[in-house]
Amino acid sequence: MHVKKGDVILTVIILLTALALFIAFLSMPSQNITAVISVDGVVKNKIVLTGLKEPITLKYKNLGYCNIVQAANGKICVESADCPTQDCVHTGWINRAGQTIICLPSHLIIKLEGSNGKNIDTVVG
Ligand SMILES: [Zn+2]
Fold first, then answer.
1. Which residue among 19, 47, 70, 87 is the one 20 to 30 A from 56 at the CA level?
2. Domain-by-domain residue ranges, the chain?
3. 112 CA from centroid of ligand 1 (Å)
4. Phi and psi of 106, rounded to 5°?
5. What spacing in Å lies between the alpha carbon of 94 and ligand 1's midpoint?
6. 30 CB contacts (<8 Å, ≥6 apart)?
7. CA 65 to ligand 1 center in whole angstroms
8. 43 CA distance to ligand 1 centroid (A)?
């Protein structure tokens, strides 16, 4: 098969364009991170972390345990807890969609969801 020089250059350009788009997609700042905080499987709070001006401190009490949750711009953590394992505290700050903090003793789950800048609550039509 005869490969023309122009074809090679075109292929390289296409590959570089695809790579550039991929990098742009990865570093896209438009994705809003929302923290979904649930206790016993019931959603208690939904906080949009992206662009949060003032840090928020939230307190959750369940099954005799207390979790102090700190939310800040683009990130969230369990600041302190009186559960025996302390796994939730040791997880530290999370800031990417799909990450979770789980406190097994108190049934607390903090999950981060990305919205890609779209409002999923908006119904078009
Ligand atoms: Zn815990």
1. 87
2. 33-114
3. 17
4. -100, 5
5. 15
6. 116, 117
7. 8
8. 17
- Provide CB contacts within 8 A for 70, sequence distance 6+: 55, 56, 57, 58, 76, 77, 78, 79
> What's the CA-to-centroid distance between 109 and ligand 1, angstroms?
10
One digit per residue, pLDDT tens: the chain, 125 residues? 677 888 999 999 999 999 999 888 776 656 799 999 999 999 999 999 999 999 999 999 999 999 999 999 999 999 999 999 999 999 999 999 999 999 999 999 999 999 764 444 544 44
Q: Give CA–CA dist 14/33, Å, rounded.
A: 32
* CA 46–ligand 1 middle distance (angstroms): 20
Instruction: Classify 19 as helix, strand or coil.
Output: helix
Q: 33-114 has which fold?
A: mini-chromosome maintenance (MCM) complex, domain 2 (2.60.320)
Question: How many angstroms does the Cα of residue 23 sit away from the middle of ligand 1?
Answer: 36
Question: How many A from CA of 51 to the centre of ligand 1?
Answer: 27
Q: Confirm whether pTM is higher than 0.85.
A: no
